[in-house]
Amino acid sequence: MSDFDLVLKGRVILCDREVEGGFVAVRDGRVALIGEGTAPAARDRHDLGTALILPGAVDAQVHSLSQKGAEGFAASTAAAAAGGVTTIVDMPYDEGNLVCSAKAVEIKAAEAAAQARVDVALYGTIDPTEGPARIAEQAEAGVCGFKFSTFGTDPKRFPRIPPALLMACFAEVAKTGLAAGVHNEDDAFVRDAIAAVEASGITDWRAHGMSRPPMTEILALLQIYETGAATGCPAHVVHCSLGRGYEIAKRYRDEGHHATIEACIHYLTLDEENDVARLGGKAKINPPIRPRAEVETLWRHVAAGNVSMVSTDHVSWSEDRKTNPEMLKNASGVPGLEVMVPLFVKGALARGVSLTWAARLLAENPARHFRLDPAKGGIALGRDADLTVLEPVAKRYDAKASRHSVAGWSPYDGIELPWTVSGTWLRGQQVFDGNTVAAPGTGRFVRPTRPLPLRQAVHG
Length: 460
Known about the structure:
By secondary structure, this protein is of the alpha/beta class. It is 31% helix and 23% strand.
């Protein structure tokens, strides 16, 4: 009789090294043994040859409920499972329900537990008319971080938090030990730039980048980190498209501040002069996609250890909201859960970046940042057996042909992925086998499991 429930044998990617011809053995939902050579017996055993065995990813930025009726947890987590993502951190800006109170957190957590196929953690936020009064109660309800924005997309669903109020919120978040994540665009600068673009008569793909020049990001980023420094609150920039932003974040860390920064997979994959010009509204994202030279600069920051984590900022807008010929009238954001892991692996290997960085940036660092470790965060003894397998089988991505994406479109359509996700396990239970995904309710609502020292670094 076997001692183990599951054994996977292949090229094991740990956070500090790779194990060629290695294996991972699972017992009672947790990693029980890691080794190389002859693998032990198990009730369920997979000899995967040269396939990669990676930790299930923790996607730090997902919008499952931004458009009512378009997606939801059952659909977003199906795409996650098919993409090798075993935990999503969902944003609080749900259509018709800003998650800004303990009651709202509890309602959303129950919805996640009933529908999710992988695990779900939640961000909280504030209603600007209430200020920071409900931050403590949301932390008690189990949020893993707080999200704010220096730009107002919508006064109710995605409001701007002005500087004095942002500082008061940071001070209150600091008491919880959680981090404050902020959307980084200067509201006044963006609105002036939009007015200038509209006055020029330019309405095609060029309009979006022109309406959000680089300085709109940098000014907001500086405000965020200075607010963190003034309040002692861990300050996190939730997406940065500019190499300069990663330089600034490193400078704050070097000064002893908790300053983390996130790179979304679209900023590491798509560029303005080719992809935005070709895709138009389907590549409209805030902050915008930048030129190819900036993409390669970001990869150099990945290699240098200046990127804290990589995420999708996933949102499955219906196609009619992404195809207006007037660029600025399209919704902002793109789906990415199904392809983030293979896209990052492709980009890393093409540039000589070790796959141990994939384990850190896609699993260990976000799990630590949101206080989901030690249960989450990579392949290690005692951790949840959240695992994904990538086989060296090339496929050209087609969202419309996918059974796991409800969007039916993707800015990554047509990209050839040299590695294909063939299996995903959540706490040792297979949630994706290459074709089917687990039933709704397989995933859980997960909350922070440990206190977070304020000065703990979350980067390479």
